[in-house]
Design goal:
Length: about 300
Amino acid sequence: MAKETLPSIEKVTDEPTGNGAADGGGNGTATLSAPIPEDYAASENIVRVRGVKRIYYIGSNPVHALRGIDIDIRRGEFMAIMGPSGSGKSTLFNMVGGLDKPTEGTVFIDEVDIAQLDPGELAWLRCRKIGYIFQTFNLIPVMTALENVTLPMIFAGADLDEQMERGRRLLELVGLGHRMMNKPGELSGGQQQRVAIARALANDPAIILADEPTGNLDQEVGEEIIQMLKRLNKESGVTIITATHDDKMYKRADRVAVVLDGEILDIVSPDEIGDHTVDGFKTLKERKAARDAAEDPEGSVAAAATTM
């Protein structure tokens, strides 16, 4: 069986971002080859979630983490999922990343129903379709930056020369071409997260899942990571789905799914949330609904009747 060939990356210099000295950014970064045209628009749904419920049990007591979620995420979109602790945000994030399966309902990733996959098939899909970025980086401490980045390529069946070439180019892409042989303990937090981004791109995924990617970083370095993810989203067309509390992160998203009590409160543009917390946004929606009902009582009665 022939081994898969991973797509190549062409290094092109780009203007530097952030404080290279502080975060190991070097004199510039590289961009992916074949940039997406300026008029590029996200299209097609790469993730479809329908009627998803997730129930856990503590002893014999059910915990309803998700209560019937419906959401579509378009190919090439930057989608943020926000919600307070215990809202179901992380459970939903795990569902769209193929890390968990629903108790009820369906999750399609690139038109594949993950509930129908056995563990081996699910591992194959995660390896080739999805790249993961974690809040705590999750780098292997005894491996160099280059070895951490090339590890997913081993599972994808790439040969050694291909691994080394692509790994070097990915580290150059994130501004760490001069730190390839350093281990995680020899890198700053921002540099470790850059290695994690390079690793997430290892197998040219269709989706990058970023779980609180700025949570362990200071404000300046966090901003650099956000800019890098946004640039990757624009230039390569990769779909980015992030679970976040960081207002700087969700304000860069195309849309924000606001999750509360296991349900999606709304899916809106970042401008519609503004500087509100989730509870504040909920209050805003309730006040608007009350105002609309006061201005059009007949319409509100008709709307209520349709839900009965």
